[in-house]
Specification:
- By secondary structure, the chain is mostly beta strands.
- The protein has strands at about 5, 10-15, 20-25, 30-40, 45-50, 55-60, 65-70, 75-80, 90-100, 110, 115-120, 120.
- The strands form 3 sheets. Strands 4, 5, 6, 9, 10 and 11 form a 6-stranded antiparallel β-sheet that branches. The protein has a 4-stranded antiparallel β-sheet with strand order 1-3-8-7, with no helix packed on it.
Length: about 120
């Protein structure tokens, strides 16, 4: 069974940077696309970024220029970095997996991690 474990959550400071990671196991990581989503308090889950099996990236418009998604196939890990943090980045961040190409639609992903919380102080 696919396993995805996020880590690196914790308090961020407005204007600073925060990186989180997602360790994958029990599937051939390099064959699959990975996505990051977030859910802010009282809001729907929304797309943040995705990276295909070939390394192509897609970003939500709200995060272009501030978000970076990357992957290390040797470590079976996907990373997400946010620069210039804003308080509205406060959310639980989830990683998810789907075959080959990235997608901004949560329904396209078959397995999800448990999430890691990133509160951002002003």
């Amino acid at each position: 069974q696919v396993q995805l474990v996020e880590s690196g959550g914790g308090l961020g400071q407005a204007g600073g940077s925060r990186g989180i990671s997602c360790a994958a196991s029990r599937f051939t990581f390099s064959y699959y696309a990975m996505g990051w989503f977030r859910q802010a308090p009282g809001k729907e889950r929304e797309f943040v970024a995705a990276i295909s099996s070939a390394g192509g990236t897609t970003y939500a418009d709200s995060g272009k220029g501030r978000f970076t998604i990357s992957r290390d196939n040797a470590q079976n890990t996907v990373y997400r970095q946010i620069n210039s943090l804003k308080p509205d980045a406060t959310a639980v961040y989830y990683c998810a997996v789907r075959p080959r190409s990235g997608s901004s639609l949560s329904g396209d992903y078959g397995s999800w991690g448990q999430g890691t919380q990133v509160p951002v102080s002003s």
